[in-house]
Each structure stands twice: as structure tokens, then as C-alpha cells.
Request: fold
Amino acid sequence: MQPCTISQKIDRPISVVFDYLSDVANYSEFTEHFLAEWRMTREETFGLGAGGRFREDLPFSRFGWGDMAIVEYAEPRLIVLAGRSGKYNRIRTLTVLQLSDDGNGGTELELTTETRPVLPSDKFLEAIAQNRARKRGWRKSLKRLSRILEHNRDRGRRATIAGGARKPATGLRA
Reply:
């Protein structure tokens, strides 16, 4: 898939938006309409290496499970998520979140997402329906993210680790 870029203005300081996006467990709150059934891949859900596994709800997708993890983290401007999806996890994915100050005390969030299908069948399915559905899903997600951070509403369920916390401070940022 060619990279697609979506922008969203959020009327919150850049540090607040960056802290929220740095915790992968928060992603299920604003992406649950097309990335569902989130499970965390490790106990620490914040920062470099934190990741999650989810089910993508895309047209013609029989193997909708995917994962992503934070592979690059430059506070307070950049978060890069890399992962895999599709049958046998053969489709590589890359999502880049760039934050900038909008000059009025708010944040301009720019999300760029890209997939690398391997087989011709994967490329065909992406071309006929999945690219458009993924772009629509991320556009709606960024609008929900804006509502969550600005007004604390339209909040979905936060992802957790199976079985609950393993230590008293799990999930708390130090």
C-alpha cells in the first residue's frame, strides 16, 4: 500500500498528546471500531518496545490478526510503530505518528501508515478494499482521539494484560 497520511488538530498541549500515545494500552480506546480485541505483548505498556496484538476488521480479511510495537520514540515529537498482519504475519506494517505545535497551545498530529504485502493475492485484496477501509478507520480513530483528549468522552475500553497486573506498579509511568 502506498503510504497514506492523515492529519488531526487536537486542542491539548503536545506533551499531553505524546504521553497518551506513548502508552500502547490506550490505543484500544480510540481504534476499537476497526482494531479490536487488543492484547498487550508485554507487561510494560509505555515507551520503546511496548506493543499490542489486535484483530483488524477489514473487508475480505480471513486472517485479521496483527500486531504493532513502538520501535522509535523521540519525545515529544515522534512515535514509530512497526508490526505485521495478515496470514502467517507476512504483511509488514509501519505507522508513524508525528506531533508538532500548532502555535495556539494545541497539537497537530500527522499519522502516516503503510503496508508491504508480499503475495499478489495480498496486493489484490489491499487494492480492492482494504486500503480504503484502513484509511477510513484511522481517520475516524484520530477524530475519536481528539474527542477523548479534549473532552474526555467517547472513550472505549483500555487494553490490559491477560490475568491482570503482575506487580503493584504495572501500567504506571515512572
Remarks:
- The domain at 4-151 is CATH 3.30.530.20 (Alpha-D-Glucose-1,6-Bisphosphate; Chain A, domain 4).
- The two ends are 38 Å apart (CA to CA).
